[in-house]
Design a protein that fits this description.
3-stranded antiparallel sheet; 4 helices; rod-shaped; 3 strands; single chain; mainly alpha
Length: 92
Amino acid sequence: MIDKIMLISIPIDELKEIIGQVVEEKLREYSSSLTHKKPPDKEFLTKQEVCQMLQVKAVTLWRYAREGRLKQHRVGRKVFFLAEEVREALIK
């Protein structure tokens, strides 16, 4: 809570400079926080990426999913596969 309000007269150019400095500082802080965030735990792969990884055609990939060898994850209407689950399927 603000205890006192002080009104002072500042030329518009000075006010713009002060606001610009504060905004620039906040943007730097925000940008810095984005680059230091931990990468996501789960990496999603597209159908094409999994086909390349397993060296199979899309039909074979869908068969693996239907048989339960690979689990599909839907995001809206798109289908993805978890990289970790694909790697585990390679081991089996």
